[in-house]
Amino acid sequence: MTAPAAYQVSHLDALEAESIFVMREVVAEMERPVLLFSGGKDSIVMLRLAQKAFAPANIPFPVMHVDTGHNFPEVLEYRDRRVAELGLHLIVASVPEALASGLVRESGDGMRNRIQTPVLLDAVEKHRFDALFGGARRDEEKARAKERVFSFRDEFGQWDPKNQRPELWALYNGRHHPGESIRVFPLSNWTELDVWHYIARERIPLPSIYYAHEREVIERDGMLYAVNEFFRPRAGEERFKAQVRYRTVGDASCTAAVRSDADTVEKVIEEVAATRITERGATRGDDRVSEAAMEDRKREGYF
């Protein structure tokens, strides 16, 4: 008698199943979850996972974009189109509106990533969200590498790295008091390469800036920044055109591009497989403010 063939699950299927389990766990435990959706590749993948987690029903929570006002137009167009296609409820927490009301002030460096935090926390309090899905991954950055899948935030939205809950196997603790919340990261165990393999497998459309295109840029601190209304060259900096793409999407004033000829998903996968620098390490000026820039922001309540 022939033994039955062993049941095997691919690496991507295992990651997908884990992420779907996390999303279902949140909806079962929490009252008012929301998915943070910027139009970036990680939040786009989370949307696909949410579709699968709750099909054939609609996604049972809204999506929220903390909008700095310093956006790439391709990404905003994608965000609005995708929200309309899926019939989602989009909440926009606006940094420009917060500036006008006096909730926050412009930082001296022109970057708005740090002042997103008070705007995010204000929206959490206003809508009484108790769980926020984020697209952070542990391979991106060292502060994110040590954060739990269910990341507890106190009544001020702050994260304490020394006060994290144990996560054994698939046991997640979402217990919290009124005013406290949980940040949930379903993609914690994914890598950038996993994300791109999943995008290829699922044939997920992305904003065009993720693929190679010609753009006017300047070089600053070893990174290529697009010249636009939010980012202007300093004296002595030379503008030039280059073939580039974006590995990550954020505030246009602090997100750099990389030289690339990868204009298809397959070529991007080859490129990512060969790189030895994470996308945030290679392209995010806001992470270079200090050695602990990301952890400092997360302690204040950042994503």
UniProtKB/TrEMBL annotation:
<dbReference type="Pfam" id="PF01507">
    <property type="entry name" value="PAPS_reduct"/>
</dbReference>
<dbReference type="GO" id="GO:0004781">
    <property type="term" value="F:sulfate adenylyltransferase (ATP) activity"/>
</dbReference>
<feature type="domain" description="Phosphoadenosine phosphosulphate reductase">
    <location>
        <begin position="33"/>
        <end position="256"/>
    </location>
</feature>
<dbReference type="InterPro" id="IPR011784">
    <property type="entry name" value="SO4_adenylTrfase_ssu"/>
</dbReference>
<dbReference type="InterPro" id="IPR002500">
    <property type="entry name" value="PAPS_reduct_dom"/>
</dbReference>
<dbReference type="GO" id="GO:0005524">
    <property type="term" value="F:ATP binding"/>
</dbReference>
<keyword id="KW-0547">Nucleotide-binding</keyword>
<dbReference type="GO" id="GO:0000103">
    <property type="term" value="P:sulfate assimilation"/>
</dbReference>
<feature type="region of interest" description="Disordered">
    <location>
        <begin position="283"/>
        <end position="303"/>
    </location>
</feature>
<keyword id="KW-0067">ATP-binding</keyword>
<keyword id="KW-0548">Nucleotidyltransferase</keyword>
<keyword id="KW-0808">Transferase</keyword>
<dbReference type="InterPro" id="IPR050128">
    <property type="entry name" value="Sulfate_adenylyltrnsfr_sub2"/>
</dbReference>
<protein>
    <recommendedName>
        <fullName>Sulfate adenylyltransferase subunit 2</fullName>
        <ecNumber>2.7.7.4</ecNumber>
    </recommendedName>
</protein>
<dbReference type="InterPro" id="IPR014729">
    <property type="entry name" value="Rossmann-like_a/b/a_fold"/>
</dbReference>
<comment type="similarity">
    <text>Belongs to the PAPS reductase family. CysD subfamily.</text>
</comment>
